[in-house]
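ok so I'm stuck.
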Amino acid sequence: MNILSIGGSDPSSGAGIQSDIKTFSSLNVHVLTIITAITSQNTTNFGRVEPVSKKILESQIQNIISDFKIDGIKIGMVYNSEIIKTLHKQLKKMEIPIIVDPVIKSTTNGILLKKRAIKDFQKFIIPLATIITPNEFEARVLSNENENSKTAHTKIAIKIQEMGSKNVIITGIKTKKTEISDLVLERNSNYWISGGKINNTNHGSGDNFSAALIFSYIKNKNIQKAVKFAKQFTHESIKNAKKIGKGIPITEVKKQDKITNDLTDAINKFIEIKNIYKNIPECQTNFVYSKQKPKSTKDILGISGRIVKAGKRVVVAGDLEYGGSKHVATAVLAMNKKSADVCSAINIKYQESTISKIKKSKMILSYYDRREESQFNKIKKSSIKWGIKKAIKNSKNIPDVIFHKGDFGKEPMIIIFGENPKKVLDKILKIV
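replied:
not stuck anymore, here's the structure
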């Protein structure tokens, strides 16, 4: 995948082109860059801006688009009307996804878009956008609206959409003390996506979000999935922010390995399955993926919280962490010792109808009775480990699914196993 990032240079590498290079590289994307302006800034203050000339901007664009197949474009800092008009002229005929991240001022209050260029931004840049991602402040500036309410946010988003952007996402709206939400306005629908709030000031989260958003959108062609991925990615970058300089901490993106990418994709698809909330048990759900030859649950990636029911939908409450799961990870650990191919699993609610579908699907099904477990093992050892070992022992072949019908104070459960998260997801789709 080749993504073109157009924006300003930030020598602190907290935002701008340098931030995009870090983000896209962490996602195994080849990033192409076009510089619109050189800034002088650090983590404590903002110095000067020198926009590039029209000639060098045109030359950068022409050389890039003539040589590379570009899968998507992210536009950040544009600064003045000359840059805005030049970009519009060069990009208006390109039929690929374009994300516009309308940066107006830096975290250290540097001006990144001249006030007199805002009208040209509205006229020439917003119509280029497949998706535009202003924060609350930027959305109010672009829409000339100052009212602050949930209704007002929708009104503002509609106004920006009417300027030409196909889709609008207003980011970073504080809806609850511990929650931060994004309003998403698509062509025929609008909805809110919420996530956990981290109470700190940082440099770079807006760039992280818009870069992760275009990556996921190109990959999935689904805005809702892309927003969820970008929110999770950004949350991690804020959580990992480091105070490298003397001022504001800089967000940090970690290179995502294949295990993380594959499990993230599967989780996102799982939570979108129609009526999947009916299959979430009282103890909630976890989805895990192991490294090869795991020695302990610390070698198994899982959700530090759970996949939980929220009315008739499900949400991921927690972050992906090695050692993040105990019970489902322990089940994989036990199965992996029997068959090294089994590296992933998910638990779902026990239902007789589900067991019937599993049998009809011709998947290999195994069972253990928790009532046979010794009191000593229940207190001193792992019930999950004991149960999986017993189920494997009683099965001629490596099972796809293992279940139990519970015990006193213990909820019945179904665990679905596979070589990887995709294989687990394929099995789930056959039985829910």
